[in-house]
Amino acid sequence: MLKKLLLLLIPFFCLGQNYYAYVASESEDTVSLIKFDGKEAVEEERIDVGFMFAEIEGPHGITVDPSGDFWYISLAHGNPFGTLVKYSTENNQAVARTTLGLFPASMEISTITGFLYCVNFNLHGSMKPSNVSVVDPETMTEVTKITTGSMPHGSRLSPDGLFQYSVAMMSGELFEIDALELKVSRVLDLENNMMTNDKKESMMSSMVEMKHSMVKPTWVIPHPKENIAYIAGNGSNEVIEVNLDKWEVSDRFKTGKGPYNLEITPNGKLMIGTIKSEGKTAIWNLENKQELAVIKNTTSVSHGIAISSDSKYAFISVEGIGGEPGIVDVIDLNSYELVSSVKVGKQAGGIAFWKKEI
Question: Which of 23, 151, 232, 323 could form a disulfide with 259 if both were Cys (CB 3.0 to 4.6 A apart)?
């Protein structure tokens, strides 16, 4: 009897886990749905996301609704403003869209307010404060714009959904927005550690040209379990740790050339970073900040990171150069090895994990 039961259970235990992620290809106006079965990554579907067929609209940032029912893409190029488009994960068809600011980039949705917070990077504008668009995803209406710094990027929410964090690449600052009150609550100068109230007020009210940061921060990721955030210093080749309780820089450690995006595994143990200028991906143990591995990506210009909900795999978007296709590399976070790769559209950038299923 026991033998028969075991024989019945073997097929169940042998079933593989399927993982799904969406990745945007900025130079082709496409989004690819990637499926990974634990061994091989394949492109399940390629979705056209542009509306102006005579030009490239540049899909840049991408995020999946906490419910998993919808995904959102920012089309960065516009006349002059960019667009946010909402898609159903059921059929990957567009549901609604709305206009945002200049060059909308990365974004995320708060589990508390339900609002989407998208940074307007303003890539082609003058070096002056830009803003964060707050959108109600239900009605796809922009609720407000909140002024931050010059070239904001890396929009991420605190684990409790109460605060939104972004960094200003050109002005070298970390911004905290109160997600309920919809206003900037704190600003930290990442070069001088602490910003005075006088300097904060001057920056927020001034529209003159701003300084060019040596740090050039490009990403911020709050820790899922501790009140700490980590920032990619793209210009200073370092990761900056910020104590969010004390609101001060608590550590800095060196990386390879041009760290770009950072993500932390849901279990809080590992941090993964793309080293954009070297075409590599680095992995750190966050308990001691030891660099565990540096993995060469399949092609050049490593960009985005999405981590599976079980903390087992990292999905890395790699832009490529010239006419090369973009690539999604899958890295096993137990063995620290690149285990599969799949070609997608040109200039693969924004990437978001969707779900895992048996």
Answer: 232
User: What is the per-residue DSSP string for 167-178?
Assistant: EETTTTEEEEEE
265-281 tens-digit pLDDT: 999 999 999 999 999 99
**pTM of the predicted model as reported, rounded to 2 decimal places:** 0.91
CB-side exposure of 86: number of CA atoms within 13 Å? 20
Q: Rounded to an integer, what distance in angstroms lies between the CA atom of residue 68 and that of residue 209?
A: 41
CA–CA dist 146, 169 (Å, integer): 17
How many whole angstroms separate alpha carbon 86 and alpha carbon 227?
A: 31
Give the residue from 114, 31, 71, 111 showing the smallest Cα distance to 355: 71
**Runs of H (alpha helix) within the chain:** 2-14, 197-205
Q: Residue 16 carries which DSSP code?
A: P
Q: Which amino acid is at 207?
A: M
For residue 208, give the DSSP letter: S
